[in-house]
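WARN no homologs supplied; continuing
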Amino acid sequence: MKAFAFAALLAAVSAPAMAATHRVDAGTGAQERLQEALILAKPGDMVELGAGRFVLTDGLSLDVPGVTVKGAGMEATVLDFTGQQGAGEGLLVTGDQVTLRDFAVENPKGDGVKSKGADDIVYYRVRVTWTGGPRATNGAYGLYPVESTNVLIDGCQVSGASDAGIYVGQSKNITVRNSVVEANVAGIEIENSRNALVARNFATRNTGGILVFDLPALPVMGGGNVIVEHNLVVANDTPNFAPPGNIVAGVRRGTGILIMANDKVLVEDNVLSRNPTAPVMVIAYPMAFADTTYNPLPRQVIVGRNSYDGGGYDPQIDGAPMLLQAFGGTLPPVLWDGLGDPASTLYVAAGTQGWSLNLPEQGKGMAGARPGPLKAPAPAPVAFDRTGIGAPPELDKRIR
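OK structure emitted
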């Protein structure tokens, strides 16, 4: 009997502690109670947010791995940062294997939710909104995972970001799907990242709908292996409200999908409607740069079959009236700046019309442009290699 009791005691001591739920409700002292729960949480724990409006005056942080932060729904649980002191993000996550789901962030002074160096992270049904609409004083990014491996963003909503609603930067193995981005400068931006899938999103009333960029002089270089498919990219016509000096301040109002300086990108099976400058743009990095490791040119970009409706009718491009007259009142749906190897930069599905600026040199702006019809080969009859593109399926298990 004593031996049995000792064995039971030993098993109890050696067994891992049960995961705990830390319940936090809105009301007096919400700032302190919520931050305390995020500090005390252990790997495997849940921080459960009740329904209601959490009035917060400072940013929150989570550096514990394996924690789930779950609200009662993106309309029911609201983290309200309208009175936030300082200009930091609403929530900063630096722990791996974190799941953020079913809550909203409103009016943060800086970014909405930022995760840095946080691998295996999931954003599920998270909303970030600047309730005053598009303003240069809004925070730059809504959802902002950076320097991460394995990122899943699913069913989220962002509006009002003065840079990008959903931004994934310097990361790899990424999926952004089933999300709504509205009235941001850039709806969705994939920057200096590899193996990204952007699918089944709705981008509307942004300055530019979906951007795939590669920029110089960043800690992680060489973006590429990106698929943009099955998205609705509609009426992205909000005037650019980015603060001067931001790279997205140069995005033209009315851009649908913009590919800049990336390698191996597939744009296919999207619906692009009423994007007044261009449904699809493929361009080189437009400025001078000193980074000798950087390739400013797009390479192996495939614009497959997409549905185009009513774009190119009000292009925000120098010489627009003459261009519209030359092309019969509406510009063709695919624009290439003409920089790069004509044989391997851009492939366009047969029957898709396009035009080129035929720029003579990178970094010199529109000087020497000779607009004319696009001459680009059709894609080879071989499927785009999807191997390793997107977030690993294990992340889905956390939201099912």
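DSSP finds three helices and 32 strands in the chain.
OK
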